[in-house]
Each structure stands twice: as C-alpha cells, then as structure tokens.
Specification:
It comes from Musa acuminata subsp. malaccensis. Keywords: Magnesium, Metal-binding. One of its GO terms (molecular function) is metal ion binding. The chain is of the alpha/beta class. It has helices spanning about 1-5, 25-30, 35-50, 65-85, 105-110, 110-120, 185-210, 235-250, 255-260, 270-280, 295-305, 310-320, 320-350, 355-370; strands at about 55-60, 90-100, 125-135, 145-150, 210-225, 285-295, 375-385. It has one domain (about 1-385): Vaccinia Virus protein VP39 (Rossmann fold), CATH 3.40.50.150. Strand 1 (about 55-60), helix 4 (about 65-85) and strand 2 (about 90-100) form a beta-alpha-beta unit.
C-alpha cells in the first residue's frame, strides 16, 4: 500500500502535471486505435448487442486527457457499427480505474465538455461514468460484469519491487548503482524481475477472467523490449540515464550513495515471447493480435505535422536536427518526471528533483544525438475463452 501511495502521476493541469506531459502516451493510444476498435466491436457483437448495455473498463486511466480520448474512440467505433447494422446504440457504462491516490478529479472536471461534444453527435448512446479506485492486481469488478477491458501504458508497472531486491535480501546488494535492470545486472537480478512480472501478469489475467463475460475482449498496450535479452541499452536507456544522473550527483555529495543502492523501480518491460507465454500458460484468454511498435517524440511530431521523413529532410537542410533532438530530450525528461516524481520524492526527498532532471535532460540530449528518441511498445488483443 505504501508503494501504491507514491506510484501516481503528477496531478492537476500545471506545467509539470501528467496531463500536460503525456503526449507519447497519447500517440500510443492513437497507434493502437485500429486494433482497439476492431476488438471492441467484436466484444459488442458477441457479448453486449442483445443486452443494450456495454460495460467498459479502462485500467490505469491516470489524470490526463488520454482516458476520455480512449472512451470517445471506443464509443464511436460501436456507434458506427450500430449505424451499419441499423440498430440503436447501447448505453455505455464506463469504469475508470487507477490507484487510490490518482487524481480522478481532473478527469471528471472535463466531463461536462465531453458530454457537450457528445450531444452534438447524431445517434449516440448514453454514457455513465464511475471511478473504481484500486490495484488491477486484484479484483475490481463484479463477476462477469464487463464486455471490454482496455489498458494503455500501465501494465509495465509491477505490483511491487521484487522481494529479492528489497532491503536486507542477499540479491538486493547485487544491483548497486542501478535503479533497474541494466547490461551489467547479474542473473539473479534479471530473474527476480522476470519472476515478479510473471506472477503479476498471471494474477491480472486471473482477476480479469472472473470479471469479463465469455466472448468479451481485452486490449493491453505496454512498454516492451526489442531484444529477447534483458538489459540491452536500447531497451533500458531511460532508466540507465536516470541512474547515471543520480550517480553523478552522488559523486558530488548531492545524493547519498546508499539511497541509490536501495532504489529499484517496480517496472518491467517484457519481450513479446514472455508476454505470450504467460497468457498461454494462464489459459483464460486467447490472443487474437499481438504487435510490437515504436513510440517516441518523433512520433509525437509526426502525429501533429504529418510526416517524419518530410520534416527530417527540411530540418537537415536547415541544420536543425540537433535542435529537434534537444527539444525531444527536454520533453522526454518532463514526461518521465511527471510519471516518477512522486516515487522519487518519496525515496530521495524533494530537494534533488530539479537538479536531477536538469542533468537527466542533458544525458538524454546526448543519447538522442546518436539514437532515435523512442521506446518499444506492444499491443495485444485477447478474447475471453
């Protein structure tokens, strides 16, 4: 419960809020749109068309605009299908879930505008919202009450730091100077993270299997690894550079070394094969689609301006590629801070954060001068057996 208290995105709508620093997460939602739409229409036709009500859960909704973006997209897909079938749209019951200390108020304050936009649409169904606070690594909803479950940019967060890495255990001293898996992490550390991910995902699937009706669908998008091997720099650079910034500060006496040695991120980015294996072993769901894709600040620019290649060409002619990458680094640093600030503040104290993320941004600038500013993601669609 203590981890749940600090594992929350920055609240409100200010400069450092998650609401203003979740552009990449919005692009991930956009990139998974076709898979999500196909799955939710199938869920409606199979599990909800005869009842007149569609129950939809978004797990890890957080506090920015992305939750309602997903909801609007889901309802539009079903309403288009109903129009083609010449049948009335269903009532939508939308259940927004996140941990207890999530800023649900920011989401609900945007509902009047959401409803006004809906009123301008022809033949739209009524929608009713509920907040469901709690961990999705446990039961959240009544049995067989959901037709569709969605989660984006959430399931890479573990229920806890692996027990083997918590203070006092023999393995906990093996990852000194690191905050997550790295290319130098010993096998015991890698295995601890993999075991925790497998336990958590099995529990997640078992709980959802009790809540989703037969034939219901689930679409999950989360960060993944390009490489089957753990600790590759291209898959861990966000954490590696954060550890480097912290260690630089420790060398100057600004952070206690033992504080770094006792911080391990409750995070795991699986490979596609690891994800598939757990789903198949647990057995409640069958995978219908699974795809890897890249998302990053180039994708954000492409999303707003219509073509990475075209704009990269213009930038090269103007000699501005480096400036673009510097901009991406600053925005990525802000995005990471919006996600991790509460957790880092709880462990290291608030006083180091400005300096830490200044240095982190500089390290990202250097990294992005030679590498694309992106991270790997996987989207998987499943049907309840």
């Amino acid at each position: 419960m203590e981890l749940q208290r600090v594992m929350r995105m920055n609240s409100g709508a200010g400069e450092s809020s998650y609401a203003n620093n979740s552009k990449i997460q919005g692009v991930i939602i956009s990139r998974t749109k076709d898979i999500r739409r196909e799955a939710v229409v199938e869920a409606y036709l199979c599990a909800a068309a005869s009842s007149g009500t569609m129950s939809i859960a978004d797990l890890g909704c957080s506090s920015g605009p992305n939750a309602l973006l997903v909801v609007a997209d889901i309802m539009e897909a079903i309403e288009r299908s109903c129009l083609q079938l010449q049948s009335p749209p269903p009532d939508f019951h939308v259940l927004l879930n996140d941990l207890y200390w999530n800023d649900f108020n920011t989401v609900f304050r945007s509902l009047p505008e959401f409803y006004r936009a809906r009123e301008r649409l022809p033949d739209c169904g009524r929608c009713f919202f509920s907040a469901v606070p709690g961990s999705f690594y446990g039961r959240l909803f009544p049995g067989k009450s959901l037709q569709f479950v969605h989660s984006s940019s959430s399931l890479h967060w573990l229920s806890q730091v692996p027990e083997e890495l918590q203070n006092g255990s023999p393995v906990s001293c093996l990852n000194k100077g690191k905050v997550y898996i790295s290319k130098t992490s010993p096998w015991a550390v890698l295995n601890a993270y993999l075991k925790q991910f497998r336990r958590d995902l099995r529990l997640f699937l078992r709980c959802r299997s009790e809540e989703i009706v037969g034939g219901g669908r689930m679409v999950l998008a989360l960060m993944d690894r390009r490489s089957p091997d753990l600790g590759m720099p291209e898959d861990c650079h966000l954490w590696e550079l954060l550890a480097e910034a912290l260690n630089d500060m420790a060398s100057e006496g600004l952070v206690a070394t033992e504080k770094i040695d006792t911080f391990n991120a409750p995070f795991y980015a699986p490979s596609l094969e690891e994800l598939k294996q757990v789903v198949e072993e647990e057995g409640s769901f069958s995978i219908t689609t699974i795809e890897h894709f890249e998302a990053g600040w180039d994708a954000v620019a492409d999303h707003h301006s219509g073509g990475e290649d075209q704009h990269d060409t213009i930038d090269r002619e103007n000699g501005a590629v480096h400036e673009r990458r510097k901009s991406y680094a600053r925005r990525m640093a802000m995005g990471v801070r919006a996600v991790l600030e509460s957790m880092l503040k709880g462990h290291f104290g608030e006083g180091i954060l400005d300096e830490l993320f200044f240095r982190y941004g500089k390290l990202l600038e250097s990294y992005y001068s030679a590498n694309k500013p992106e991270v790997g993601n996987v989207v998987v669609a499943m049907v309840r057996n």
